[in-house]
Protein backbone atom coordinates (compact mmCIF):
# COMPACT_ATOMS: atom_id res chain seq x y z
CA UNK A 1 0.00 0.00 0.00
CA UNK A 2 1.67 3.23 -1.12
CA UNK A 3 0.79 6.59 0.33
CA UNK A 4 -0.77 9.16 -2.03
CA UNK A 5 1.69 11.82 -0.76
CA UNK A 6 5.29 11.84 0.53
CA UNK A 7 5.15 10.83 4.18
CA UNK A 8 7.40 10.88 7.22
CA UNK A 9 6.95 9.28 10.61
CA UNK A 10 7.87 10.66 14.00
CA UNK A 11 8.90 8.42 16.90
CA UNK A 12 9.96 9.08 20.45
CA UNK A 13 13.06 7.38 21.86
CA UNK A 14 12.04 4.23 23.76
CA UNK A 15 13.52 4.06 27.24
CA UNK A 16 12.32 0.68 28.55
CA UNK A 17 12.32 -2.84 27.11
CA UNK A 18 8.55 -2.67 26.76
CA UNK A 19 8.74 0.61 24.81
CA UNK A 20 11.52 -0.81 22.62
CA UNK A 21 9.36 -3.86 21.84
CA UNK A 22 6.42 -1.62 20.92
CA UNK A 23 8.53 0.39 18.47
CA UNK A 24 10.11 -2.78 17.01
CA UNK A 25 6.65 -4.20 16.35
CA UNK A 26 5.53 -1.02 14.59
CA UNK A 27 8.60 -0.50 12.41
CA UNK A 28 8.14 -3.23 9.74
CA UNK A 29 4.54 -2.12 9.13
CA UNK A 30 5.49 1.55 8.85
CA UNK A 31 8.60 0.85 6.76
CA UNK A 32 6.39 -0.92 4.23
CA UNK A 33 4.86 2.47 3.44
CA UNK A 34 8.25 3.74 2.22
CA UNK A 35 8.52 6.93 4.27
CA UNK A 36 10.74 9.66 2.85
CA UNK A 37 12.39 9.82 6.28
CA UNK A 38 11.58 9.19 9.94
CA UNK A 39 12.40 11.40 12.89
CA UNK A 40 12.99 10.92 16.60
CA UNK A 41 12.09 13.46 19.28
CA UNK A 42 14.47 14.88 21.84
CA UNK A 43 13.62 15.76 25.44
CA UNK A 44 14.38 19.34 26.42
CA UNK A 45 17.09 19.88 28.99
CA UNK A 46 19.04 16.84 27.90
CA UNK A 47 16.66 14.30 29.45
CA UNK A 48 17.07 12.12 26.37
CA UNK A 49 20.62 13.17 25.58
CA UNK A 50 21.62 9.56 24.99
CA UNK A 51 18.27 7.96 24.09
CA UNK A 52 17.72 10.02 20.93
CA UNK A 53 21.16 9.39 19.34
CA UNK A 54 20.90 5.69 20.22
CA UNK A 55 17.44 5.47 18.62
CA UNK A 56 18.68 7.31 15.53
CA UNK A 57 21.62 4.91 15.25
CA UNK A 58 19.27 1.94 15.61
CA UNK A 59 16.81 3.22 13.00
CA UNK A 60 19.59 4.00 10.52
CA UNK A 61 21.85 0.99 10.98
CA UNK A 62 19.43 -1.78 11.88
CA UNK A 63 16.38 -0.69 9.91
CA UNK A 64 18.03 1.15 7.01
CA UNK A 65 15.81 4.19 7.53
CA UNK A 66 16.82 7.78 6.81
CA UNK A 67 16.39 8.80 10.45
CA UNK A 68 16.54 12.49 11.38
CA UNK A 69 17.12 13.56 14.96
CA UNK A 70 15.12 16.30 16.65
CA UNK A 71 17.39 18.67 18.50
CA UNK A 72 15.88 20.97 21.11
CA UNK A 73 18.03 23.67 22.62
CA UNK A 74 16.17 24.64 25.79
CA UNK A 75 18.52 24.14 28.75
CA UNK A 76 21.35 23.01 26.45
CA UNK A 77 24.84 24.41 26.00
CA UNK A 78 26.69 25.16 22.78
CA UNK A 79 29.22 22.45 23.66
CA UNK A 80 26.48 19.81 24.09
CA UNK A 81 24.79 20.74 20.83
CA UNK A 82 28.13 20.78 18.99
CA UNK A 83 28.89 17.30 20.28
CA UNK A 84 25.50 16.00 19.15
CA UNK A 85 25.95 17.58 15.72
CA UNK A 86 29.34 15.83 15.41
CA UNK A 87 27.80 12.55 16.47
CA UNK A 88 24.95 12.84 13.97
CA UNK A 89 27.39 13.80 11.23
CA UNK A 90 29.41 10.64 11.92
CA UNK A 91 26.20 8.58 11.70
CA UNK A 92 25.53 10.02 8.25
CA UNK A 93 22.51 12.15 9.23
CA UNK A 94 21.80 14.97 6.81
CA UNK A 95 18.46 16.19 8.18
CA UNK A 96 17.70 17.70 11.58
CA UNK A 97 14.49 18.96 13.16
CA UNK A 98 15.58 22.02 15.20
CA UNK A 99 13.41 23.14 18.11
CA UNK A 100 13.44 25.25 21.20
CA UNK A 101 11.70 22.64 23.36
CA UNK A 102 9.99 23.47 26.63
CA UNK A 103 11.55 24.14 30.01
CA UNK A 104 11.09 20.97 32.07
CA UNK A 105 9.55 21.60 35.49
CA UNK A 106 12.26 22.32 38.05
CA UNK A 107 14.71 23.59 35.43
CA UNK A 108 15.34 27.29 35.87
CA UNK A 109 17.79 28.17 33.11
CA UNK A 110 17.26 28.51 29.37
CA UNK A 111 20.84 27.46 28.67
CA UNK A 112 22.84 29.00 25.82
CA UNK A 113 19.92 29.40 23.42
CA UNK A 114 16.70 31.31 23.90
CA UNK A 115 14.74 30.49 20.74
CA UNK A 116 14.79 27.87 17.99
CA UNK A 117 16.02 30.58 15.59
CA UNK A 118 19.20 30.83 17.72
CA UNK A 119 19.70 27.07 17.35
CA UNK A 120 19.16 27.17 13.58
CA UNK A 121 21.69 30.01 13.27
CA UNK A 122 24.15 28.04 15.43
CA UNK A 123 23.81 24.88 13.31
CA UNK A 124 24.34 26.88 10.11
CA UNK A 125 27.35 28.64 11.66
CA UNK A 126 28.91 25.36 12.82
CA UNK A 127 27.99 23.06 9.95
CA UNK A 128 27.24 25.24 6.92
CA UNK A 129 24.89 23.40 4.58
CA UNK A 130 25.61 19.91 5.91
CA UNK A 131 22.10 19.51 7.30
CA UNK A 132 18.65 20.03 5.85
CA UNK A 133 16.96 21.80 8.76
CA UNK A 134 13.25 21.49 9.54
CA UNK A 135 11.62 23.73 12.14
CA UNK A 136 8.24 23.69 13.89
CA UNK A 137 5.34 26.02 13.11
CA UNK A 138 1.85 26.50 14.48
CA UNK A 139 -1.24 27.00 12.28
CA UNK A 140 -3.30 27.50 15.46
CA UNK A 141 -0.59 29.73 17.02
CA UNK A 142 2.04 28.62 19.54
CA UNK A 143 0.44 28.28 23.01
CA UNK A 144 2.82 30.82 24.58
CA UNK A 145 2.08 33.42 21.95
CA UNK A 146 -1.00 35.58 22.23
CA UNK A 147 -0.22 37.37 18.98
CA UNK A 148 -0.59 35.36 15.75
CA UNK A 149 1.27 38.04 13.74
CA UNK A 150 4.27 37.99 16.09
CA UNK A 151 4.26 34.17 16.04
CA UNK A 152 4.41 34.26 12.24
CA UNK A 153 7.26 36.80 12.34
CA UNK A 154 9.15 34.48 14.70
CA UNK A 155 8.59 31.61 12.26
CA UNK A 156 10.05 33.81 9.50
CA UNK A 157 13.09 34.51 11.70
CA UNK A 158 13.77 30.77 11.89
CA UNK A 159 13.58 30.47 8.12
CA UNK A 160 15.83 33.50 7.65
CA UNK A 161 18.29 31.88 10.07
CA UNK A 162 18.56 28.97 7.62
CA UNK A 163 15.65 26.51 7.98
CA UNK A 164 14.83 24.61 4.77
CA UNK A 165 11.35 23.47 5.72
CA UNK A 166 8.76 23.34 8.47
CA UNK A 167 6.50 20.79 10.08
CA UNK A 168 3.33 22.01 11.74
CA UNK A 169 1.87 21.23 15.11
CA UNK A 170 -1.12 18.95 14.59
CA UNK A 171 -4.58 20.34 13.97
CA UNK A 172 -7.95 18.97 12.86
CA UNK A 173 -9.21 21.99 10.94
CA UNK A 174 -7.74 22.11 7.42
CA UNK A 175 -8.60 25.81 7.09
CA UNK A 176 -6.18 26.56 9.92
CA UNK A 177 -3.42 25.07 7.74
CA UNK A 178 -4.43 26.68 4.44
CA UNK A 179 -4.84 30.13 5.99
CA UNK A 180 -1.53 29.75 7.79
CA UNK A 181 0.29 28.78 4.58
CA UNK A 182 -1.29 31.76 2.78
CA UNK A 183 -0.20 34.11 5.57
CA UNK A 184 3.30 32.62 5.54
CA UNK A 185 3.62 33.12 1.77
CA UNK A 186 2.43 36.72 2.11
CA UNK A 187 5.04 37.21 4.84
CA UNK A 188 7.73 36.05 2.41
CA UNK A 189 8.20 32.54 3.86
CA UNK A 190 8.80 30.28 0.89
CA UNK A 191 9.85 26.95 2.45
CA UNK A 192 7.66 23.80 2.25
CA UNK A 193 5.24 23.61 5.19
CA UNK A 194 4.35 19.99 5.90
CA UNK A 195 1.27 19.35 8.05
CA UNK A 196 1.84 17.33 11.21
CA UNK A 197 -0.87 14.68 11.52
CA UNK A 198 -1.93 13.13 14.81
CA UNK A 199 -3.93 9.93 14.26
CA UNK A 200 -6.36 9.34 17.11
CA UNK A 201 -6.22 6.15 19.14
CA UNK A 202 -7.15 7.35 22.60
CA UNK A 203 -9.34 10.36 23.31
CA UNK A 204 -8.21 11.14 26.87
CA UNK A 205 -4.55 11.02 25.80
CA UNK A 206 -5.32 13.28 22.83
CA UNK A 207 -7.09 15.77 25.12
CA UNK A 208 -4.10 15.83 27.45
CA UNK A 209 -1.63 16.43 24.59
CA UNK A 210 -3.86 19.05 23.01
CA UNK A 211 -4.20 21.02 26.26
CA UNK A 212 -0.42 21.09 26.53
CA UNK A 213 0.46 21.98 22.96
CA UNK A 214 -2.43 24.30 22.17
CA UNK A 215 -3.95 22.17 19.39
CA UNK A 216 -7.71 22.55 19.13
CA UNK A 217 -10.02 19.56 19.09
CA UNK A 218 -13.10 20.92 17.28
CA UNK A 219 -16.21 20.72 19.45
CA UNK A 220 -18.04 18.35 17.11
CA UNK A 221 -15.06 15.99 17.04
CA UNK A 222 -14.57 16.03 20.81
CA UNK A 223 -18.27 15.42 21.42
CA UNK A 224 -18.40 12.50 18.98
CA UNK A 225 -15.24 10.90 20.40
CA UNK A 226 -16.45 11.40 23.96
CA UNK A 227 -19.80 9.79 23.13
CA UNK A 228 -18.09 6.51 22.21
CA UNK A 229 -16.95 6.18 25.83
CA UNK A 230 -14.89 2.98 26.22
CA UNK A 231 -15.83 1.64 22.79
CA UNK A 232 -12.26 1.71 21.52
CA UNK A 233 -13.02 0.01 18.20
CA UNK A 234 -15.66 2.58 17.26
CA UNK A 235 -13.31 5.41 18.24
CA UNK A 236 -10.61 3.93 16.00
CA UNK A 237 -12.96 3.56 13.02
CA UNK A 238 -14.50 7.00 13.33
CA UNK A 239 -11.19 8.73 14.06
CA UNK A 240 -9.44 7.04 11.12
CA UNK A 241 -12.19 8.28 8.77
CA UNK A 242 -11.95 11.82 10.14
CA UNK A 243 -8.15 12.01 9.96
CA UNK A 244 -8.02 10.37 6.50
CA UNK A 245 -10.49 12.97 5.25
CA UNK A 246 -8.30 15.71 6.76
CA UNK A 247 -5.24 14.25 4.97
CA UNK A 248 -7.14 14.01 1.67
CA UNK A 249 -8.15 17.65 1.89
CA UNK A 250 -4.62 18.73 2.79
CA UNK A 251 -3.04 16.84 -0.09
CA UNK A 252 -5.72 18.02 -2.55
CA UNK A 253 -5.09 21.58 -1.35
CA UNK A 254 -1.37 21.37 -2.06
CA UNK A 255 0.28 20.14 1.16
CA UNK A 256 3.77 18.99 0.09
CA UNK A 257 3.72 15.91 2.35
CA UNK A 258 2.35 14.53 5.62
CA UNK A 259 4.31 14.05 8.85
CA UNK A 260 2.65 11.50 11.14
CA UNK A 261 3.04 11.62 14.91
CA UNK A 262 2.99 7.84 15.36
CA UNK A 263 3.60 7.64 19.13
CA UNK A 264 5.67 4.56 18.16
CA UNK A 265 2.62 2.56 17.07
CA UNK A 266 1.57 1.59 13.56
CA UNK A 267 -2.13 0.82 13.80
CA UNK A 268 -3.74 4.27 13.93
CA UNK A 269 -1.38 5.69 11.28
CA UNK A 270 -1.92 2.72 8.95
CA UNK A 271 -5.70 3.00 9.36
CA UNK A 272 -5.53 6.63 8.21
CA UNK A 273 -3.25 5.97 5.21
CA UNK A 274 -5.34 2.94 4.12
CA UNK A 275 -8.45 5.13 4.02
CA UNK A 276 -6.89 7.98 2.06
CA UNK A 277 -8.02 8.54 -1.54
CA UNK A 278 -5.70 7.12 -4.20
P1 LIG B 1 10.41 28.83 18.94
O1 LIG B 1 10.35 28.91 17.47
O2 LIG B 1 11.63 29.35 19.62
O3 LIG B 1 9.11 29.59 19.50
C1 LIG B 1 8.72 29.44 20.86
C2 LIG B 1 7.88 30.64 21.27
O4 LIG B 1 8.71 31.81 21.34
C3 LIG B 1 6.75 31.00 20.30
O5 LIG B 1 5.67 31.48 21.07
C4 LIG B 1 7.35 32.11 19.45
O6 LIG B 1 6.35 32.98 18.92
C5 LIG B 1 8.23 32.83 20.48
N1 LIG B 1 9.42 33.46 19.90
C6 LIG B 1 10.26 32.94 18.99
N2 LIG B 1 11.25 33.82 18.71
C7 LIG B 1 11.01 34.93 19.48
C8 LIG B 1 11.66 36.17 19.66
N3 LIG B 1 12.79 36.48 18.97
N4 LIG B 1 11.14 37.06 20.54
C9 LIG B 1 10.02 36.77 21.24
N5 LIG B 1 9.35 35.59 21.11
C10 LIG B 1 9.85 34.69 20.24
N6 LIG B 1 9.68 19.50 21.81
C11 LIG B 1 10.71 18.81 22.35
O7 LIG B 1 11.09 19.07 23.49
N7 LIG B 1 11.34 17.81 21.65
C12 LIG B 1 10.98 17.49 20.39
O8 LIG B 1 11.57 16.59 19.79
C13 LIG B 1 9.91 18.21 19.77
N8 LIG B 1 9.53 17.96 18.49
C14 LIG B 1 8.56 18.75 17.91
C15 LIG B 1 8.26 18.54 16.56
C16 LIG B 1 7.30 19.31 15.93
C17 LIG B 1 7.01 19.08 14.47
C18 LIG B 1 6.59 20.30 16.66
C19 LIG B 1 5.52 21.13 16.00
C20 LIG B 1 6.90 20.52 18.01
C21 LIG B 1 7.89 19.75 18.63
N9 LIG B 1 8.25 19.97 19.96
C22 LIG B 1 9.28 19.25 20.53
C23 LIG B 1 7.56 20.98 20.77
C24 LIG B 1 8.28 22.34 20.75
O9 LIG B 1 9.56 22.22 21.31
C25 LIG B 1 7.42 23.32 21.55
O10 LIG B 1 6.24 23.62 20.84
C26 LIG B 1 8.11 24.57 22.02
O11 LIG B 1 7.24 25.23 22.96
C27 LIG B 1 8.42 25.58 20.93
O12 LIG B 1 9.40 25.15 20.12
P2 LIG B 1 9.78 25.95 18.79
O13 LIG B 1 10.94 25.29 18.20
O14 LIG B 1 8.59 26.17 17.95
O15 LIG B 1 10.21 27.35 19.47
From TrEMBL:
One of the record's GO molecular function terms: FAD binding
Catalytic activity, EC: 1.5.1.54
Protein's GO biological process: methionine biosynthetic process; tetrahydrofolate interconversion
Highest rank taxon of the organism: Bacteria
Organism annotation: Dokdonella fugitiva
Name of this protein: Methylenetetrahydrofolate reductase
Major enzyme class: oxidoreductase
Signal peptide: none
Biochemical pathway: Amino-acid biosynthesis; L-methionine biosynthesis via de novo pathway; One-carbon metabolism; tetrahydrofolate interconversion
Entry-linked Pfam families: MTHFR
Cofactor needs: FAD
Taxonomic placement: Bacteria, Pseudomonadati, Pseudomonadota, Gammaproteobacteria, Lysobacterales
Amino-acid biosynthesis as UniProt keyword: yes
Any one Gene Ontology cellular component term annotated for this protein: cytosol
Catalytic function, reaction form: (6S)-5-methyl-5,6,7,8-tetrahydrofolate + NAD(+) = (6R)-5,10-methylene-5,6,7,8-tetrahydrofolate + NADH + H(+)
Family classification: Belongs to the methylenetetrahydrofolate reductase family.
Assigned keywords, A-Z: Amino-acid biosynthesis, FAD, Flavoprotein, Methionine biosynthesis, NAD, Oxidoreductase
